[in-house]
Each structure stands twice: as structure tokens, then as C-alpha cells.
Amino acid sequence: MSGLTRLRFKSQIRAIPAIKVIVQPWRGRHHVYGIFLLPKSYQPKKLIFLQDLTVGHYCPQAVIRQTDLEGILIPPRYSPVKIYMKTRIALLLMSLGFNRHLQQPHHWRLTIES
User: Fold this and answer.
1) First CA to last CA across the chain, in angstroms?
2) Which residues in 20-52 are b (16+ Cβ under 10 Å) and which e?
3) Helices (DSSP H) in 12-98: which residue ranges?
4) Residue whose C-alpha is closest to residue 48's, from 88, 14, 23
5) Domain 3-113 is of which CATH architecture?
6) Entry pTM
7) Beta strand 20-23 with 32-39: parallel, antiparallel or unpaired?
8) What are the per-10-residue average pLDDT scores of the chain (114 residues)?
9) CA–CA separation, 37 vs 84, rounded Å?
């Protein structure tokens, strides 16, 4: 039984789509990430998956950082966060033909335990 299966039975699962995706692995570390709007009341301590619908689940140890977004209206009860994908994983996925999938925000989902 996978961790995701156990998580589904014990609590509610919520999928949050990315509002923006940056995929530039040729620039080095920290240039492949999605920006998501998380409720301010949510403290990301539990299991988190970055999910590409075509590739499957990824990033059980995703790096989460608060971020500021200029020019984008953020609802009052939400805060934007960046979740980084490892550069080597992004390059591997691109070499397997998933470049277009990685660059489209609707393929990125943040699945959280609520």
C-alpha cells in the first residue's frame, strides 16, 4: 500500500493547481518550480506531492518557500509558495519527451492533506 493510498483513507485530499510554472533547468538549480496559492491557515508539515498528470506523482520531499508575486492579485486568505523540482529530474523528464507537459501549469497539481 503506497503512502498516498494510506493518506486518502485517513484524511481529506485537496489538489491545488499551479498558477505559474517556470521550467529553465539549463540555468542551474532552482529554475524549475511551480507557484501555488496555499491557504494561509495551512502549515505545510505533512506529506506533499507535486503531481504531473502524465508522469505521475513526484517530489515527496519538495522544497517549499514563501514568495512574493508582483502584478498578480492574491486573494486575502492565501499566500503564494514556490515548490521546486530537482533540476536533474526535470532534465530527465524533458529527455523523455515531457517538455511541453512540464511547461503547462494545468499539468502541475499540489496534493495536500487537509
Assistant:
1) 20
2) ebbbebeeeeeebbbbbbbeeebeeeeebbbbb
3) 87-95
4) 14
5) Beta Barrel (2.40)
6) 0.70
7) antiparallel
8) 45 76 86 84 56 54 60 79 83 87 84 66
9) 14
